[in-house]
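R.M. (postdoc): so does anyone remember the format we settled on? I'll just put the structure tokens first.
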């Protein structure tokens, strides 16, 4: 009788150990998943920067440059304009010299913005081709037509939504 009882006790100990090991493994795995997800979300440079574009005629203006940390699309939203009907174009440029006048066009197209218009803009700023190693992005904005208008925007070189293409919102 005592040998059956001893076997049951030993079996319970083994099951308890297996459960502890499984729980430990699950905790480590969960930690790695959370850490991996957290790294992806917080690694890109997706904080919003205020930008004021002012046009008097057909001039082109540039935003400040910002470091680009991943291949997601750049993001911009125009939230205010001096005229509700006026629009302007935005293209994405890349630079390795960290200034907003010596870069190269890295986009797919010119995006049309007006009041309350938002775009995720595909670009190749982060990717490296040949001697070009772009580490920063900036926006080049020009008026749609001959206008004298001002536009207030928010923009980011990366986006936290994980969007990699063109998308209007």
């Amino acid at each position: 009788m005592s040998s059956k009882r001893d076997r049951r006790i030993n079996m319970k100990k083994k099951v308890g150990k297996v459960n502890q090991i499984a729980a430990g493994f699950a905790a480590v795995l969960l930690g790695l998943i959370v850490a991996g997800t957290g790294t992806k979300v917080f690694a890109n440079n997706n904080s919003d920067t205020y930008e004021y574009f002012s046009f008097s005629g057909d001039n082109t203006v540039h935003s400040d440059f910002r470091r680009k940390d991943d291949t997601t699309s750049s993001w911009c939203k125009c939230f205010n304009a001096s005229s509700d009907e006026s629009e302007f174009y935005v293209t994405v440029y890349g630079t390795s010299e960290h200034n907003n006048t010596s870069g190269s066009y890295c986009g797919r197209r010119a995006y049309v913005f007006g009041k309350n218009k938002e775009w995720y803009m595909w670009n190749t700023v982060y990717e490296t081709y040949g001697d070009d190693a772009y580490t920063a992005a900036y926006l080049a904005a020009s008026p749609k037509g001959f206008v004298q208008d001002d536009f207030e925007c928010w923009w980011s070189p990366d986006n936290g939504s994980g969007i990699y293409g063109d998308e209007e919102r």
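R.M.: ...and that's the designed sequence above, right after the tokens. Also worth knowing: The radius of gyration is 26 Å. The helical segments are 2-43.
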